[in-house]
Design brief:
The complex is a heterodimer of chains A (308) and B (213).
Chain A: H1 3-12, H2 18-26, H3 28-46, H4 56-63, H5 79-107, H6 120-134, H7 144-150, H8 202-207, E1 232-238, E2 244-249, E3 260-265, E4 271-275, H9 282-294, E5 300-306
Antiparallel strand pairs in A: 1-2, 1-5, 3-4, 3-5
Helix pairs in contact in A: 1-3, 2-3
Chain B: H1 2-15, H2 19-35, H3 41-61, H4 64-81, H5 91-120, H6 132-135, H7 141-146, H8 149-160, H9 163-174, H10 179-186, H11 190-209
Classes of the chains: A alpha+beta (308), B mainly alpha (213).
């Protein structure tokens, strides 16, 4: 074995074969190299000594941020295509559904489903409700003045009552405040104030106490020199279907504040008015009957409440 | 009757598992815990590898302060990168690779500072700059206090060989990485690892021959 072969074997780091050991005994130069290599291996072992500072762990942990890193979970490679497919399917489904809804009646020559015409009073009532939600736009389909003109002329009334069209709850309460009698034959519908605020749901209003309902607080006491209110806004509510209508009555012929009356419209045109305990209120019958018939309400039982 | 014998054999096999294998299993478990959202699992990983990383960096930089800073930086990088760690290599290999890169970066910065310092110094009468220590082959104070003459001579020999030989010797002979881990860490095949290790042993042996009596 040559010295070069021996040194190659020595630097492999493997145990030396017998022939290499034999060469070692006969070659002082290689014996010296073997000794130094052994010392180097011993020195490398010495480098394994732990020389870390005692507070190494604490200092390393202190250097880490307090918040956890954003975890990037491995994503399913199919997740994105599947999500895109699902979104496309949903959009396509909605588009197809809306197309069929729009096109099916004509395409299939099917008549559109007929909607039973509501009772005129109810229709008018709903119209009033719609108008209240629309805030009575000037160019609305049915302005209140036109609606008033379309109504049949009111029957003769024994008492002087403003021949104003029935108020809707969209109109501000100021409309029923004292005002001069309108000229005969003229629909006295005061213009809505420019700053009229939208009123809450009529149904909700009717359930509130008049004094607590916003915007329906009793009119302030008449100032000196002004006349007393000649009409009070009342609500007429059916007991079975919770429909309602509004009408005006003289103060003497409407329920006291905080109470209610019952109005029964008979099939034969008989009108009965009773208080909350069922006791007849004969004085109010004629006046209430006139206002109710003015509204063309169908026969039935109603609850009358003062809302202003 | 056989079961009575199987259990001791099984326990014996478990007890004789190398520390590296048991550590690798624990690493996998802690990495999975961390990636599942348990950030506290990282502390177990730190505890298991902090001394090895510090030792490797200290041998490469030969300065305890630099070694501590680079070790902190390596664990911080690992903390931030562990969510995207895919496990292609073992955690230890991955972590040591981070530490090795951080140490190389620090070494390069120190060498640049050294060259600037040397160019500014007109005469050699002034005491050496602390920056010189990183590249100075002379033994460090800590090696004088903690190690013997052999250790001091070996450190000097290591400082005189090439960085790639120094790195591969430390990874294999001091940190105990197997050929596969070293190859994965350095990006070379196992055959290259073995041949480079042989050349590194020869280099350090020849360097030590001029120092060691």
């Amino acid at each position: 074995m040559t010295c070069e072969e021996f040194l190659d074997l020595l630097d492999q780091g493997e145990p030396l074969p017998p022939e290499a050991l034999a060469h070692l005994e006969s070659c002082p130069k290689c014996a010296r190299a073997h000794l130094v290599a052994s010392e180097a291996a011993r020195g490398l072992d010495a480098l394994k000594e732990d020389e870390a500072p005692p507070d190494l762990h604490r200092r390393l942990m202190a250097a880490l941020p307090a918040e956890a890193p954003r975890l990037l979970h491995r994503r399913n490679p199919w997740a994105l295509p599947l999500a895109a497919l699902l979104v496309a399917a949903l959009l396509g489904g909605f588009s197809l559904l809306s197309f069929l809804r729009r096109e099916t009646p004509e395409a299939l020559s099917l008549p559109r489903p007929s909607v039973a015409a509501p009772h005129p009073a109810i229709e008018k009532e709903e119209s009033a409700s719609t108008e209240s939600r629309r805030q009575a736009p000037p160019e609305g389909p049915l302005p209140s003045s036109e609606a008033a003109e379309s109504l049949p002329p009111p029957p003769p009334r024994p008492l002087e009552l403003h021949r104003e069209p029935p108020l809707t709850l969209s109109q501000d309460l100021s409309e029923v405040r004292p005002s001069a009698p309108a000229p005969a034959g003229e629909a006295a519908v005061p213009p809505a104030p420019a700053d009229a605020q939208p009123m809450p749901s009529p149904k909700g209003l009717l359930k509130e106490e008049p004094s607590a309902a916003a915007g329906l607080a009793p009119a302030p006491p008449a100032a000196e020199g002004e006349s007393a209110p000649s009409a009070v806004l009342c609500a007429l509510e059916t007991l079975d279907r919770s429909r309602y209508a509004s009408l005006q009555l003289p103060p003497d012929f409407c329920p006291p504040r905080g109470s209610h009356w019952y109005v029964v419209l008979g099939e034969r045109g008989v009108t009965e008015v009773t208080d909350g305990r069922g006791k007849p209120v004969p004085d109010a019958v004629q006046e209430v009957d006139g206002a109710v018939r003015y509204l063309h309400l169908p026969p039935g039982r109603y609850k009358l409440r003062r809302v202003g | 009757m056989e079961a009575v014998w199987v259990y001791p054999v099984f326990m014996d096999v478990l007890a004789n598992l190398p520390d590296e294998e048991r550590g690798a299993e624990a690493d996998e478990r802690d990495v999975a815990r961390f990636q599942a959202g348990n950030a506290a699992a990282f502390e177990d990983l730190v505890r298991r590898h902090e001394r090895g990383v510090y030792r490797l960096v200290l041998r490469l930089l030969r300065n305890p302060d630099d070694a501590l800073e680079v070790t902190q930086e390596a664990f911080l990088r690992a903390y931030r990168g562990l969510p995207s760690f895919r496990g292609d290599a073992s955690f230890r290999t991955w972590l040591f690779g981070i530490a090795l890169n951080a140490a190389r970066t620090r070494q390069a910065g120190l060498l640049r500072s050294l060259s600037r310092t040397e160019s500014l110094e007109a005469s050699g009468d002034d005491p050496p700059s602390p920056l010189l220590w990183a590249a100075d082959p002379a033994p460090s104070p800590e090696s004088r206090t903690l190690g013997g003459e052999l250790k001091e001579a070996l450190l000097t020999a290591l400082s005189r060989i090439s960085p790639e030989h120094r790195e591969i010797l430390l990874l294999r002979e001091v940190e105990g990485l197997d050929y596969g881990e070293v190859g994965a860490l350095l990006g070379i095949p196992e055959g290259t690892v073995k041949s480079r290790l042989a050349r590194a042993r020869r280099a350090v042996r020849e360097a030590l021959e001029g120092i060691w009596p």
